[in-house]
Amino acid sequence: MSPTLATSRRLAPAADRTLWQQRYTALREHSVRLARPLSPEDQCVQSMPDASPTKWHLAHTSWFFETLLLVPHGRAYRVFDERYGFLFNSYDEALGPRQPRAESGLLTRPSCDEVLAFRAHVDSAMQALIDSAEPAAWAELEPLLELGLQHEQQHQELLLTDVKHLLWQNPLRPLYAPLGDPALGGEPVHPRPLADDGGWVERPGGLARVGAPKAEGCAAFAFDNETPCHRVLVSSHRIASQPVSCGDYLRFMREGGYARPEFWLSDGWAMVQAQGWQRPLYWLGADGELAETPRLFTLHGVREVHVHEPVSHLSFYEAAAYAEWAGARLPTEFEWEAAANDGVLRGQGEVWEWTRSSYDPYPGFKPMTGAVTEYNGKFMVGQLVLRGGSCATPAGHARPSYRNFFAPAARWQFSGLRLAQDLS
Length: 424
Hints:
The protein is of the alpha+beta class and about 425 residues long. It is about 35% helix and about 10% strand. The chain has ten helices and twelve strands. The strands form four sheets. It has a four-stranded mixed sheet with strand order 10-9-8-11. Strands 1-4-12 form a three-stranded antiparallel sheet, with helices on one face.
């Protein structure tokens, strides 16, 4: 029942087991470090159905290792608490019933200390499993271990974006951590300013190779939704060399962008009316007013908007409306990936960039098999693709073929945009 991952590191079974143990430890400790600035009260609350409490993220990622690696493969492994399978399964129907995700905030028990004890129990057993697995078992375990670590990195990013949305609900506007906090490795969790005003890069039409290779022995990891690698026909176009800045977006706002239906998709305009959107999420201001120098809420406190930083926390609808106002469009995910592979895109990794592509399976797509078959394929409907990574994405986690996806109204991620135009 080994999963078919797109690619997976194939390390020598002896000395490199130590490297796996070190990587496992460092990554797991980082998740706990991200939670350290938060109180137990902070870690328990769920701010909306799409977000999860910090405590749940810490427990769910441990449930993954326990359920998919330790229970099937650990010698005489003792489950920490039989009830946790129900509490911390997220969406895997094949793995049994579960607490509804939208009600994760009701789990005041187990306590934060008990969740940390759960993590320690799992980590000790995982270190022993990595060390002692026989070569035949290791061949089956290694791709699952890689998937588990990549899965944990996804939840590290979600932990930060969920915490930001949670603290935003508090009228005190509390900060998560000061700039330079060791919990974040001294790095800010906010998009860095762009170097200049950018420009356009003209791209010829033709066949472009996209997706991740699925070859045995390939050193890079990829999720199943990035495969198979294939060729697509791309028309000639130009693509912006860098993402849209806050200064650019301010011009759209000052020209009444949120009050002019001609720029908006029908569903987007309905959302503007229903939700009263007047600015990006986390920007501060009175209704109907736009300050000369707007302020915004960040994980490090409230500060002025920097006009040269990439605009973030936009829905797909807002991104598409801005593009229409600017006389442009959003790139397709294939235009974006081909340009990224050629190294012509600047500002990558600051904000996730909305594309005009729906989240669909690639031709010949096959989901992972076994217990992890529900990882991606079941979500390929009603979502839009984002590319590039963000300031909250763990270092080394994103790549040009990485396909993130959210519903078009989602705003709580660090999501922005880059423009494209057709060439006649």
